[in-house]
Amino acid sequence: MSGAWRAMAILGVTLLIGASAADLARAESESPPFERGARLREALDAYSMALAEPERDARLAGFARAERGFASLVEEGVRTPSLYTNLGNAALQAQAPGRAVLAYHRALSLDPDASSARQNLIHVRSRLPAWVPRPESTRGLRGLFDERRLPAPLRARLGALSFFLGGLCALLAVWRKEGAWRGLGMFFGLVWVLLMASFALGGSMGDAPLAVLTGDEVLARSADSALAPLALPEPLPAGVEVDLLEQRAEWSRVRLANGREIWVRSSSVTAVSG
Amino acid sequence: MRGVRWGAGLWVASMLVAGAAQGQNVEVQTDRGPHYAGDPITVQIVASQFDEEPTPEVRVGDLAGARLRYAGVSDSSSTSISFVNGQLTRSKEVRFVYRYELIADGPGRLRLPEFEVSQGATTRRTAAFELKVQGVPTTGLVSLDVVLPKAPIFVGQKVPVDVVLRLDREAQRDLLSIDSVVPLFDQANLRFLDDPSAASDAKLEIRTMEGVIALPATMSEEEIDGRTVLILRARRTLIPLTPEVLEVAPARVLISRGTRFRRDLFNQRQATSMERLMAEGDPVRLEVIEVPRQGRPASFAGAVGEGFSLEVSADRSVVQLGEPILLTFDLRGDGDLSTAGLPPFDAEGLFDPNLFRLPEEPPAGLLEEGGKRFESSVRVLDAAVREVPAIAYSWFDAKTRRFETTYSRPIALSVGAAEIIGADAVARRPGLESGRQEGEVGGDSSLPAPGAEPPPAMVRSTSLAVSGANLAVDSDPGRVLGTGAASRAMPLVQPIFYGLGLGVLGFAAFERRRRGLDPVERARAAAYTAAQRSIEAAAVAPPDGAAGELGRALRELIAADPTAANAEFDALLQECDALRFEPGGGSGLPSGLVERARAFAVSRRDLAVEERGAS
Fold first, then answer.
1. Where are the domains of chain A?
2. Which of A205, B89, B119, B379 would be B357's cystine partner, CB 3.0–4.6 Å?
């Protein structure tokens, strides 16, 4: 076998293994479908009953029960935009906006077009106090590598599609002997390389992982100590989106949307990537 | 305090000149003796010829039987220019002088350890040496006492400490200097407060590890046992920080008293000889105990004292549900406010966590004049809340040995309609068909609205609809659990695309290679392949026709590639023809002939490939 053929075979095997490893791992951890279906039904029933409940405490308890039901399916390994959106809605109804924002982000990381998750996320942001910094939409080329604009699963699928189209154009260029096909093939190849590079360089491009404050009334400190002076006069409400910069034992350094860096207790912040 | 005389008569206790080639040297100098126990001895480390930056570091060896206190460092540099035999020489000298205060615990030989001075990679050491320390005779002309409560005191309790210096009139007349030391003031687990505004008509100087402190004191004269005694009385406030039993060395006073005098030009008395005398008080014992655990109220946060009060104010009294209210807590009282804090907000007697959303930890306060201020925000969770309740604050009164509690005044609140998202926010609008909820977008299927009657809080759902939240849940198991056909197929998308892409790329590479070949070369390659197949067919052909078959295959090969004809080919062809036309033919092909034919075809094919590559 020549060197080129051997290299192509190695590349192919690597890509195929990489593309299906995550799916195989998830498939192994899944419980029987009928069991998951029953659990989903329970969670949906709890949500439905909570909607009908006139008494406040019982209503909140019902939504909390529904949230636990949806969360148990997530723990089972079920990762779908709809499940995360349901989880976020139940958390929001249970007056846990932090967990709701987290779930909406996870839904959007799987499907950027999850309209309900996006709509509710915008809604929760609008309900935050006016002084709390909110994230802005990413602009420019940097958005290509932004997890919030182009989630990893979508990038992976686009990469696979670009790879296939690039190969197809290469074949057409051989058959038709037209430079346009060669150029188009090179374009798809470049797209594929950029998308793969976004995985390889994702951690070193300065984009800290996105996280959400899930604790209530999170005190922002200027250093990683309970005795350090407060960095903000007001405690941060649950649901504030931050960049997770550093984690040290009980404390995490995060960056607010306005660029300000603060320290919060690690127990009060959760990374979207899980 | 005895003066320290430095200069030409300086007694150099030890000098080590190391590394003369580089010029750096270190000396240790002490003031002239005699030295007395308890009397401070000045020690100087002089480092010269080091670089100006950075300042050298000094490390002190182990010291026993004395205390050494670092008093500071000073540096100086001087430049000298000399003109000798027509040559101008400029030299610069840099000196660092480190000052220490040495106090021997008792009389005897005191070993001063070596001092190590280092700057970067350069290190110089002095040699250790011994000092002779003399004891000081005691006297009854002076005394220094520390007055403390006999009973155990509590952690955080403010306790007055009186320091009383008594000096006999006889000693006053010939007194040259007085040096008072109270070791209690150097205890790390005790904090002392001084009131600089206290009424005073004198200053009582006490030497501590941090330097000399001048305490405001009152002065009086009393007759004690028929002798007139001057009394200086100063007061400090002690606050113990940890529970323990403290056994501290007694307070000590050391005086220098003139024994012979003469009159100077201005008729002033000048001492020509003196004596040193010392007096010690009683050893100090102080028992510090914890505030009793039994009966501690939940609103107790460690405050000890008396007369505490707590005032609470809010930045607003009309709020919407969920909005923050900034509360200010002003704490006042006769106690150590610097360490006083607020109890956890959800403690009994403070806030109900079901009605208020509370911070996870109480705020750190700021000391202000006359009190301490804390600020924190809380949020109302229930529209039924009508006030910020009276907040309890408890402290321990050390005098009565009881816990006391004060309450702030409640603050009336007006809580508006809920603005946070509630369950009723997704209630069905009257007239809306079941199965669709307001604000719903996309293809999400919603749960059927329960009950025929609309929920009572429909107004708020309208306000939420304006804000655009869609809280309907997706009940399709296929989408939610990812068991639909599309969801099942989704994980296969990547492998399929990559598999197809690899296949197409491989096919493209093959096609390119195939199309890139010369037609003549391609025909020649095909001819070799066909010839090899024919040779193999001839090898297994019936004996009567095998030689003919082999000969035909070789001829076809040469027809496709005439350059392959050589002597070997001629020999092979000749042998094939001989076997074919041999009388009584049909004996079959000898195995050696077939092997040679195979080898010929392979060698000619390889040769053709090499020639093509070379061209």
1. 33-127, 148-204, 210-271
2. B379
CA distance B444 to chain A (A): 8
Q: Residue B609 sits in which domain range? A: 519-614
In A212-251, the residues whose Cβ lies within 8 Å of chain B are: 215-219, 226-227, 229-230, 233-235
Task: Give yes or no on whether A33-127 and A210-271 have one common fold.
Answer: no
Burial of B582 (0-12, 13-18, 19+ CB in 10 A): exposed
Per residue in A234-253, pLDDT (tens digit) is: 788 999 999 999 988 789 99
My answer on whether B171 and B304 are in the same domain is no
- What pLDDT shows up at residue B520? 76
Question: B419: nearest CA in chain A?
Answer: A127
pLDDT tens digits for B35-58?
888 788 889 999 988 888 788 888
The reply to whether residue B487 touches residue A80, judged by beta carbons under 8 angstroms, is yes
Is there a single domain that holds both residue B156 and residue B277?
yes
Taking CA atoms, B368 is separated from B194, B337, B374, B391, B421, in Å, by 17, 10, 10, 21, 40
Beta bridge pairs of residue A91: none
pLDDT classification of B17: cutoffs 50, 70, 90? very low
SS3 B45: strand
Average pLDDT, chain A: 80
C-alpha dihedral sign at A182, A185, A189, A190:
positive
Q: Is domain A33-127 classified as CATH 3.40.50.300?
A: no
Give the model confidence (pLDDT) of B356-415 as tens digits. 888 877 887 788 877 888 888 888 888 888 888 999 999 999 888 899 999 998 888 888
The answer to whether residues B120 and B159 belong to one domain is: no
Cβ(B305)–Cβ(B398) under 8 Å? yes
Model confidence at B420, pLDDT cuts 50, 70, 90, reads very low
Residues 57-86 of A with CB under 8 A from B: 59-60, 62-63, 73, 78-80, 82-83, 85-86
- Report residue A103's pLDDT band, with 50, 70 and 90 as the boundaries: very high
**For domain A210-271, which CATH number applies: 1.10.3720.10, 2.30.30.40, 3.40.1010.20, 2.40.30.170?**
2.30.30.40
Is B379 in Cβ contact with A119 (below 8 Å)?
no
Total domains in the fold of chain B: 5
* Residue B498 belongs to some domain of the structure: no
- A85, A115 Cβ separation under 8 angstroms: no
pLDDT in tens, A138-159: 434 444 445 555 667 778 888 8
**ipTM score here?**
0.70
Which of B11, B94, B21 lies closest to B51 in space, CA to CA? Answer: B94
Q: Name the token pair of A75.
A: 């723990």
